[in-house]
Design goal:
Layout: H1 6-24, H2 28-43, H3 51-71, H4 74-84, H5 91-104, E1 105-106, E2 109-113, H6 115-119, H7 136-145, H8 158-169, E3 182-184, E4 187-194, E5 202-207, E6 215-216, E7 219-222, E8 230-232, E9 237-238, E10 243-248, E11 256-265, E12 271-282, E13 290-291, E14 298-305, E15 310-317, E16 324-332, E17 339-342, H9 344-348, E18 350-351, E19 356-363, E20 369-379, E21 387-394, H10 421-439
Parallel strand pairs: 4-12, 14-21
Antiparallel strand pairs: 1-2, 3-5, 5-10, 6-9, 7-11, 8-10, 11-12, 13-15, 15-19, 16-18, 16-20, 17-19, 20-21
The structure holds heme C.
């Protein structure tokens, strides 16, 4: 592995780290606490059933630890230990704490999504992110190979990647990954909210993608239930192909950025899935962004034959009397790369009072199968809710769109957007199967 000149590297990294602390300054301890728990679990050999995660990283740990010791300059260690003093861990823990921060935000680049924007919380292993625990070389190769990730190279040095890899190595899923529920979205930014007031709720879906096994859902817990209260409608046993919803609110207690990790725990208290909620407390009533009237919560392209493409245009509006700074507008989610998004206001980085911006969403399937994503936005105003998008690539020649193309009535009402046509069919089938069973 090519080693960067350590002092130089970290010399340039440190001011950025402190600027990050400036922005998210009072939040790291909460994250560290969460992560500390994971680290402890690992060191204890992991909970029963975590064999996958444990064997996964064991071989690398010693090597990575040594390498970290060699590459980290003494002043860096000193500065980092101030941050990581809470965890009072060894150099590896400090490493992974820095990696956790880099996983969430690129150094000095709050507008650009770091790993979390596409992969969500790592415990969800979206797009095999946990493979990154194998070492910085694998991450580096992936960045070179996956075009969506290419932009990351200019912001992250090899030692940054080593820290991220060390962080990923601390994440131990509670069981075989395929038996865990599916959680989306895994990050949501409420944007600005007047201190002391409560936002509209936002919804996170939890699904059991297994056709036969139920998943025991114990609790859903917010790391900050005061600023980010949660409610969920998950049954104790989430049936095969079933889904449930978490509703989250933002209630800023003070001005400035806020964030909390929320976790879905099983009945024995093990973390199944995690997500992150963020927002900013505003001292005065902030501007808000909204989707134009009539925009559904779910945009479904239904079936699109391979080789064809489809577009849909949405309106993003600024109904307030002050301009809104728009930092980001993009598709996130499990199949984000299958969709395209164009919007003139993104290049401008701004939406004037009363103005509207045409956001063009495109889908051109390269493979058959159902895909989904979420249109996610970050601004200095109250953010419009995420719009969920779904589409299915079908083999050409096109089959005439059959019944699922029209959405059930509940789709556009809040929360009803949870069930897409495909899901509904699966759910109905599962319910019918259950009834039959009970009937016997
Ligand atoms: C713009 C979206 C995006 C961002 C940001 C992103 N990734 Fe990825 N990443 C992907 C996609 C898409 C894949 C799946 C590629 C595939 O399977 O072909 C992937 C795959 C991976 C994999 C799996 C590679 C494998 O061998 O299977 C790792 C590890 C990974 N990314 C690490 C990272 C890390 C670390 C970061 C942050 C520094 C990051 N990614 C940021 C989109 C992203």
């Amino acid at each position: 592995m090519k080693r960067q000149p350590a002092a130089f590297d970290h010399g340039s990294g440190m001011p950025m780290l402190s600027s990050r602390q400036g922005r998210f300054g009072y939040r790291p301890p909460r994250n560290l606490v969460g992560r500390g728990l994971q680290v402890k679990r690992r060191e204890a050999g992991g909970p029963p059933g975590s064999a996958v995660g444990a064997t996964f990283h064991a071989a690398d740990m010693a090597g990575r630890y040594k390498q970290a010791m060699r590459t980290l300059a003494a002043p860096v260690l000193l500065a980092l230990s101030a941050v990581a003093a809470l965890t009072a861990g060894a150099a590896r823990a400090q490493d992974s704490a820095r990696g956790a921060a880099l996983y969430r935000a690129l150094p000095g680049q709050p507008a650009l999504g770091s790993c979390i924007s596409c992969h969500g919380e790592p415990i969800n292993n979206r797009n095999s992110i946990l493979r990154g625990a194998a070492g910085p070389e694998l991450i580096s190769k992936t960045i070179a190979a996956v075009s969506a990730m290419g932009f990351l190279r200019q912001y992250l040095s090899d030692s940054d990647l080593a820290d991220i890899s060390a962080y990923l190595a601390t994440i131990v899923p509670a069981g075989p990954l395929e038996s865990l529920p599916d959680l989306w979205p895994t990050t949501d930014d409420f944007g600005a909210q007047l201190v002391g007031t409560q936002s509209a709720p936002r919804t996170v879906l939890i699904r059991n993608l297994q056709p036969r096994e139920a998943i025991a859902v114990g609790t859903v817990r917010s790391a900050d239930p005061v600023a980010f209260p949660l409610q969920h409608d998950c049954p104790i046993s989430l049936p095969p192909l079933g889904q449930c919803r978490i509703s989250a609110w933002f209630r800023p207690q003070a001005a400035g950025p806020a964030g909390a990790v929320f976790a879905v725990l099983d009945s024995s208290g093990r973390t199944l899935r995690e997500g992150a909620l963020t927002g900013a407390g505003a001292p005065e009533l902030p501007a808000t962004l909204a989707w134009s009237a009539g925009t559904p919560e779910l945009i479904d392209f239904a079936q699109v034959p391979l080789g064809q493409s489809m577009q849909r245009t949405l309106g993003l509006v600024n109904p307030s009397s002050i301009p809104v700074g728009l930092t980001r507008l993009r598709v996130t989610g499990p199949n984000a790369s299958r969709f395209t998004l164009q919007a003139p206001c993104v290049a401008a980085g701004r939406l004037e009072p009363g103005a509207s911006c045409a956001v063009t969403l495109g889908f051109a399937p390269s493979a058959a199968g159902r895909v989904e994503g979420w249109i996610d936005l970050v601004s200095d105003a109250g953010n419009a809710p995420l719009v969920r998008i779904a589409a299915a690539g079908v083999a050409a020649p096109a089959q005439p769109p059959s019944s699922p193309a029209s959405m059930p009535a509940g789709e556009s009402s809040s929360g009803g957007g949870a069930v897409s046509a495909g899901w509904l069919v699966l759910l109905l089938a599962a319910v019918a199967a259950l009834r039959r069973k009970r009937g016997r």
